[in-house]
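request received
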Amino acid sequence: MSFDARAVLDARARTSPPEDPEVAAERRQAASGWFRELRDRLCAAFEAIEDDYAGPMNPDLAPGRFERTAWERPGGGGGEMSVMRGRVFEKVGVNISVVHGGFSPEFAKQIPGADRDPAPGGADGAGAQFWAAGVSLVAHMWSPHVPAAHMNTRHIRTTLGWFGGGGDLTPITPHAPDTARFHGAFKAACDAHDADYYPRFKAWCDDYFFLPHRGETRGVGGIFYDYLDSGDWARDFAFTRDVGLAFLDAYPAIIRAHMNRSWTEAERDYQLIRRGRYAEFNLLYDRGTQFGLKTGGNTEAILMSMPPHAKWP
Amino acid sequence: MSFDARAVLDARARTSPPEDPEVAAERRQAASGWFRELRDRLCAAFEAIEDDYAGPMNPDLAPGRFERTAWERPGGGGGEMSVMRGRVFEKVGVNISVVHGGFSPEFAKQIPGADRDPAPGGADGAGAQFWAAGVSLVAHMWSPHVPAAHMNTRHIRTTLGWFGGGGDLTPITPHAPDTARFHGAFKAACDAHDADYYPRFKAWCDDYFFLPHRGETRGVGGIFYDYLDSGDWARDFAFTRDVGLAFLDAYPAIIRAHMNRSWTEAERDYQLIRRGRYAEFNLLYDRGTQFGLKTGGNTEAILMSMPPHAKWP
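response:
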């Protein structure tokens, strides 16, 4: 699945004309502006959940609020982490970043379009071999009845430009109506753009979030896509916005459906064991985590995805 | 450091005559017998600690006892896990294994002597490309004042045969007398065999147990060695036995020095955060873990090393 998309993009590297610099600058601006707006809307939705919580657990905790920390990338650009530790969200991170810079010649060979002139520079990344912006979210919840979730969308530009992202849901014990709601939102977003997207991107997600050593998937899936360049930038950007909005529609509703239920110590304990699997996936298999940590990325921002508390009893 | 030892072993592959089959069988027997004996002595020492504990914490827990589980390797051989969850040891695993089988041709190229005839077979591994036996131990303690520890020794045979292993100490807060005792025991074991061993194997350990993304070592080190074949099998086996005995001498004494002290919730919390680093090392960098999980090893036995409880707050 992933190979097809990558092959299409590689083929484009040989045929597509260089982008007009003004158009390129507008696109960078539009994409990074959207990721920031989506971040703000997600944080607002999650803070409203903290306010509206009316369950019996965590009686001593106040409604959570996000704390923001900006960071700079030594090679160019930077980002902003937003982290909340509340009474519904045990730990949730919503990170945005806009980075640019160079690859080593060897690494550039692995990145579509990165070994071809001209560079995608401009005022915010002049002469850079790549420019990348995105929003990334991981939520770990206090309640074993509320699924954990992950969402990420990104736009990457070398001499080519493409979108990627997706979202997946990790319930402690799968609950069919939640799974249906989550997949339904992504299916609707996909179908509005291309009838092939949902089946392809759902299968890609199932394939990606799999732990071979456990013989299990990380959760109940969602969608995953990468190297998306249909040839129509505006269309791909609109799809990527819709993926973010689908998540914003589905996940807060799933949280609200369960957040006021109490839980037992045994249910919580089982949640912590399942979170061990989540940690295993992130450290053993997740490409973003491995790539980020091994290329000098911001360790705190990358490991924001780790569960606040996990067990391997 | 590791490259030197590997190069010596690779050179030997071109010059050493085939081993007499009776001698080979005796050596397999002697090595696997020793690993089993060391396992029994370590388990007895740890159970005695559980009996002798007289501290104020964990008042409701009974002295722990090891539980044994045998497993078979589909490709040949198997092992025995011994796990104890007690009142001093939160989780300790002592695993032994004796396995044999074949490598894929591609993988065999990475293993000294594995792509050369004849195979190291015999009654317990006829026609196999490799035979390997070892003992492996990881201890995670309830008390933040008692260091975690890891020890492993192994003997691997292809058309060549070599020893490897080591031990390292991971205190939550380093304590100089413990560090001195642990390193002192290994230094004495090393110095009795070769004056070069301790400085080489200590440096190799520091190099191996390092987390680049954190810029920190996993703990206060110890020794690490691999591909050890001096040309005198009996000498290398005696050294490997002494490494095990040094650990058996030092680690229980370090536990006993601190086990009866109480601790605060803040100290325990910090311990759980440090254990997150331990989990990061094992899943991101440990060669044995990565190799085992990605080649269909016994997941439960491999992940016995994971901390029972960890935090990424």
